[in-house]
Structures are given as structure tokens and as C-alpha cells.
Amino acid sequence: MERGWVRPRPALDRRLDGALTHRLTCLVATTGYGKSTALTGWGQAVGAVLHRLGPADRDLPTLAGTVAAALSAKVPGLPADLLTAAAAPLGPDADELSKAAALAGALAEALAQRLRRGLVLVFDGIEAIAGAAGPVRYVETLVRAAPRHLHLVTASRAPLPFPTARLRQDHDVLDLDAGDLSLTPDETAAWARALLGEAGADIAAELHRTCGGWPAAVQAALDALAREDPATWRGVVAGLTANSATLERLTLAAFKDLPPAMRELLRAATVLPVLTSGLAATLGAPPDTVDALASRGLFLEPAGPDGHRLTATADAVRGRGHRPRGGRPPRRGPGPPGQERAGAGGRAGQALPGRLDSGAGRAGHARADAAAAGDPAARRDRADEQGDRRPADVVQADGGEPPAGRLRQARRERPYPGGSPAGGVVGLRPA
Fold first, then answer.
1. Cβ-based neighbours of 145, under 8 Å, separated by 6 or more
2. Same domain, residue pair 189 and 163
3. Do residues 348 and 377 both lie within one domain?
4. What segment(s) does the record annotate as region Disordered (predicted)?
């Protein structure tokens, strides 16, 4: 986001001030949470050295030379040979990891001798060097060897690509996630008032509920409202998650950025009323996947004390089921294994790598796995899918599988609208 008309966020700035008392501060959130915007404004206020990582920084000499030059401008007297060594190209037989560690170590030692007050060094966009062994080792070594007065801040859409357990044991790490970066209701109202005038404050509460505090969504909504008649504002806000191409693009881009395990878990979440850590483990997700996904924001929101569900924005994008331009319409009836199909009562789009849902087959398996794991809500939904209308306690006692006679009776008494219940794509049920 451009800072532009966006008002200052003093509460977030105060959270970022915690970086001044920690060796490492990690901002982790998906796209659209304003990490770069927040760090730019706060960094200017505290005199930070801000380096926004890009594709060029996957080359170790480029990264090390740029960082050394930026620090030299802030810290007079840094040895000139630091710049020379950093910018020197790697030889054909060079050990890149060893050189990365040596360059970062030498820089840290030189800073320890010359820094007399706190200095913040920001690496914004760590994901740009993910998988580049030398640059990752350079940042890691700089974090571990940082002198007392050097405070490093990283911003990324994913956790750091190197371990920080020892630093955390020593309380040297400050973590900020999507919950810290989300707008508060008061901040949403301030943004609305700044762009729309006092009339904007009247719709701020509804705007905040619809967007969940996601800064990108709030900005997109306010930009849309600024072009509309104030009499239509409530309708525009009500249809935001279902009709905004900007939100869809941002959501799908963020989904594609997720690791495969998180994407698979989100696909399962589209058919579960509540996603818990226990259900995630049953579905094969690595430990702490739910918490890590929730900390990134955008996709999951709390649903009770122990669970999460899809946010309105993520569920709306999933429900639209768009297919690529020029793609063929969905097949009806049997198709090749793994291909989505629409049955008697449902519809499905062509399978997309970036879509949050993955068809009725996966939906049924995920719901069955969750029911088998003993989740009462999933058992009730599984029984609903199969036509069982018995009370919830009976369904739970039977594991969601009704006797044949009761099943036929239930179907006669309460027929499904539109045909067989097994035909359509199963969507997320409200918790």
C-alpha cells in the first residue's frame, strides 16, 4: 500500500518500538497487511536503515555490498575493505556459505567497535531470498552476531528460513503477526473519515466487520466508496467480499504464496465448520500448521476457544469458483480421476492450482476424516450430507451412519431441494 492518504498508526508504531529492545523483530503476515508501509513510516521516525529485498539480492555479493554501503552511510568510520570484500565476485571454487558467514561476521565486528547508540536494520521481504543459501546464511549470521546496539527487523509473508529457537529462549526475539498489523475499529473509522469525510465514519463499523481489519480490504473498499454516491455505500460494503476483483486477486495471490501443507489444510477448511489443531493433525498437517496459518491473517479467524474457520473474504473467493479465461465449462457426469465435476444439485469450476476449494471428492473425504476423528460438528455435517436428520446426540452416538430404514424415512420426510444431496460441491457451513 502507498502511504499516501493513510493516516499514521501510533498504536502499531508503539508495538514496533519494541524492536529497540530486542536483537530481532519478525513481522510475518500475508500480503495486504501493510508491513512495508508500517516499516517505512516507523523506520524514518527512528532513523533505521531500510533494505527492501528483491531478486538481485539472491546474489551474495550484491546483497552484502548493498548492506555494507547503507550501513557505512549511517556509521562513519566503517572500514572501506568491508565494501571491497563484500562486492567481490565469488570465484568458481568459492564456498558461498563460508564467505557469507565471514562477510556478516566481519561487518558485525566492525559495528560492535563503532556503534555507540541503537541502530535499526530492516530487511523487508525476506521471501525474496528464500532458497538462496548464501544470502540466507548472510542474514542469519548477521542476526546471531549482531552487537548490542544493532537491532534487526525482518518482514516477510512466511517465517524466517533459518532457526531462531536459541534467540527465543534468550528472549531476544519480538514477534508481530497479522493480529498486530490489522486495523482496529478506531483506525478503520479514522481511515474512512480521512478519505470520505465525516459521512465515512457512519459506515466504518460495518466496513470493519466486513473487512476484518485487513488493511488492503479496507483501502480497496474506501477507494470504491469514494467513486460512489453516499446513498449506495452500505450496499457496496455488503457486496465487497463477493464482488471485488481487487480482493479476489490479493487473496488468490496470498493463497499461492502458502506452503503446500497450508494450502491443503485450507482446502479441507472449506468443508469443515470449525478447524482445530486435532483435526489438522488427522488430515496430515504438520504440527502448529493451524496456528502458523492463523498468524498470517486473511484466511482464518477464531471460531470459539480452540478452533478457526475461513474468513468471509477467503470463503467468498472460494465460493465463486472462477476458471481461467478461455477454459472449458465444467464437465457433467463421470470424468477422469481427479477432475472436478458438477452433480445433480451443484456446480463446480475447472480445477485451479490457486483455488481454495478442490471439489466434492476432496470435500467428502475431509468431512469423513473429521467425523472419524470424533469431531461432533463434522459428524453432524457428514450425516446431513448423507441424508440423516436425526438429533445430534443420536448422530454422534452412531458415528454419523444412520440405519438404512431411518435414512429412507428421513429422506421421505425432508427431501433435499434440487435432488440428491451427494451431487453438489459441499461448501463451508456456519459454525
1. 104, 105, 108, 109
2. no
3. yes
4. 300-431
Would you give per-residue pLDDT tens digits along the chain (431 residues)?
Answer: 334 445 789 999 999 999 999 999 999 998 889 999 999 999 999 999 999 999 999 999 999 999 999 999 999 899 988 888 887 777 777 789 999 999 999 999 999 999 999 999 999 999 999 999 999 999 999 999 999 999 999 999 999 999 999 999 999 999 999 999 999 999 999 999 999 999 998 999 999 988 889 898 898 889 889 989 999 998 888 877 666 677 777 778 788 888 888 888 888 777 888 888 888 888 888 888 888 888 887 788 888 777 888 887 777 666 554 433 333 333 333 433 333 333 333 333 333 344 454 434 444 555 555 555 555 555 554 544 444 444 444 334 444 444 334 333 433 443 333 333 333 222 333 33
Residue type, 34: G
Q: Please give the DSSP secondary-structure letter assigned to residue 19.
A: G
Q: CA 14, CA 33: separation in Å to the nearest integer?
A: 17
Residue 109 lies in a domain: yes
Q: Which amino acid appears at position 258 of this protein?
A: L
Flag whether 424 is in a domain.
Answer: no
Q: Are residues 29 and 171 in the same domain?
A: yes
Give the H or E element holding residue 308.
Answer: strand 307-310
Same domain assignment for residues 278 and 132: no
Nearest CA among 43, 306, 33, 308 for reference residue 180: 33
Q: 151 and 281: one domain?
A: no
Number of domains into which the chain is organized: 3
> pTM for the complete prediction?
0.68
Are the C-beta atoms of 403 and 246 separated by less than 8 Å? Answer: no
* Owning domain of residue 148: 10-181
Strands, DSSP E only, in 74-124? Answer: 119-124
Give the closest residue to 9 by CA, choosing from 187, 267, 155. Answer: 187
